[in-house]
Amino acid sequence: MHSHKAIYTELTDRIREAVRGLKVLDAACGNGLATLKYASSASSCTACDYAEKMIEYAETLDHPSNVSFELQDICDLPYEDRSFDAVVMLNALDQVAEPEKALQEAARVLKDDGILIVPTYAGGRADRGTFYRQAALFGSPLIYSSWTPQAFLDFLEANDWVAAEYCVISASAPFMYAECRKNSIPKRAETISASTADEEFWLPLKARIFTSKAYPHILFDRPSLNIEEKLPEIARNMPDVSEFSMLSYSVLSAEAEKVIRRYTQICPDLMVVNIKAGMETFSLRCREDNQIFYELDDPSSLELRQTYFPSSWYDRYLPYHPLDERWISGIRKEAGRPLLINACGAFFDFTKEEVVSFLRICSSYGGAFVLFDADSSGSGGILVKRTNLNERRMPSFTIDDIQGFVKELDFPCEVLESSTLFRGIEKKGMKSDTKFRIELIEKMKLRNIYILKTGTFR
Asked: Are 159 and 152 in contact (CB under 8 A)?
């Protein structure tokens, strides 16, 4: 069991690493002693408290030039929106009459990819000991709230925060340390109209359900089968979609699953990001131990996904456009682990310039393995013809020579693997038209799957 001094040493050590190089707001800094233990690693630290005696004492301390102390109310901060990289509320929320307002203000002044650090006692109504009696001498408030560790996590979630990292430190009363991110996914209504997503959103899911029943040797997706009866009518009935279209989506998903499993064996701490995730189920089909998956899509798609495949500590949602680098910046601030980015199906509407921009972003933030598919320029739309959804759309991005494409890039990138989409697919039982189109695509190499390594990571 930790002593009071040991707890604060561990907490400030953790905070020091979390805020290294960041612009920090220490909200409810108290007498400033804890602030000065970690603030040296920050680019700057604005420390504030509403207790005048606390700030008066803090200003008497010898502090570096990157630290300033101010008299402010953390429920009514004067700072501009999105002006801090990190907000620290060390042992503060339980001393605020309306902690919800404090969290709202933290969300306002914190950048979208910023981090909220909220260590607090979490011993329910247990006696907190001498700290509070001593703090009262400086004008510190009464204790308004008491949480157990789980109740504190529930409180954060109810106020639109996701605890990305947390732990409980054993002491006379348990102490919870939590690093949080904004939850940009709006709270769900009880029901969502089927009109909130068109057929194109549901088709990959419908295809995996179809293939799991008709061709389980190609792909078997138990999580998707489990929710079939709960899906809206638009997702369950698509009578005009061809068998070939169904299998195209499913084979792409099956190939991506194989790559994820294989690269996880090579890199056990691999993190996976699914671009334009939709209703994909990789995190449920092939996750290993403590592996983390990220689902990147627009907010409305993630909101709909939440109904069927709720986010969790290992399956995290990223409501960003793929070209908005905040998503990868946030991931890299959390961990420096190897990253596999699954962009299968994501580049259909991208131009070549947009794909290059995406790969450059991946390279700039520590590098990553990038898995994606692309048609050749001679495909003539064969892969979208006869699908009632895409018959008027052609791919914007094509590749004929992957090595030539990579050589033109002005950042580190190499081709690790290249293969055709339908390689080795057992066609027994398929319709003759489906067989013909698969054989033609394979013979002419009209759609291929690539794995690139961007950046200079090892």
From this structure: no
The pairing of beta strand 175-182 with beta strand 120-121: antiparallel
- Name the DSSP letter for residue 398: B
| Beta-carbon-side half-sphere exposure of residue 113 (alpha carbons within 13 Å) | 15
Cα–Cα separations (whole angstroms), residue 27 to 55, 105, 142: 12, 10, 17
Nearest to 81 by CA among 56, 124, 111, 55: 111
CATH superfamily of 194-454: Vaccinia Virus protein VP39 (3.40.50.150)
Contact 34, 177 (CB under 8 A): no
Cα angle: 18, vertex 302, 230; to 5 degrees = 135
Query: pLDDT for 188-232, tens place per residue?
Result: 333 333 334 578 899 999 999 999 999 999 999 999 999 999 999
Q: Which CATH class is domain 4-182?
A: alpha beta
The CB density around residue 215, as the number of other CB atoms within 10 Å, is 22
Residues composing the chain: 458
Q: What's the rounded Cα separation, in Å, for the pair 71 and 53?
A: 10
* Contact of 358 with 411, CB cutoff 8 Å: no
Give the C-alpha separation, 208 to 458, whole Å.
34
∠280-285-290 over CA atoms, to 5°?
Answer: 110
Q: Give the Cβ contact number of residue 137 at 10 Å.
A: 8
Question: Does the model's pTM come out above 0.85?
Answer: no
Tens digits of per-residue pLDDT, 316-341? 999 988 988 888 888 887 667 889 99
Residue matched to tokens 């033109």: 408
Find residue 169's DSSP bridge partners: 175
Beta-carbon contacts of 253 under 8 Å, excluding residues fewer than 6 positions away, are 204, 207, 208, 219, 221, 280, 344
> What would the two tokens of residue 46 be?
């604005």
| 194-454 shares the fold of 4-182 | yes
Distances, alpha carbon 431 to alpha carbons 204, 237, 441, 446, in Å: 20, 20, 16, 20
Task: Tell me the C-alpha distance between 358 and 347, whole Å.
Answer: 10
Domain ranges of the chain: 4-182, 194-454
The two structure tokens encoding residue 346: 């994501």
Are β-strands 175-182 and 161-169 bridged in parallel, bridged antiparallel, or unpaired? antiparallel
What distance separates the 2 farthest-apart alpha carbons in the chain?
84
